[in-house]
């Protein structure tokens, strides 16, 4: 099915991330996806 995720741009220390290229990883069962995310401010 379709899933969605909303990220508020805050890092694990509670601070807003800077503009740049980030990588994220999604894991569901045996499936692991790594993708690129661009943050522009």
Automatic annotation (TrEMBL):
It comes from sediment metagenome. This is FlgD Ig-like domain-containing protein. InterPro entries: Secre_tail.
């Amino acid at each position: 099915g379709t899933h969605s995720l909303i990220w508020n741009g805050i890092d694990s220390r509670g601070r807003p991330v800077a503009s740049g290229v980030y990588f994220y990883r999604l894991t569901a069962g045996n499936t692991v996806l790594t993708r690129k995310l661009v943050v522009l401010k």
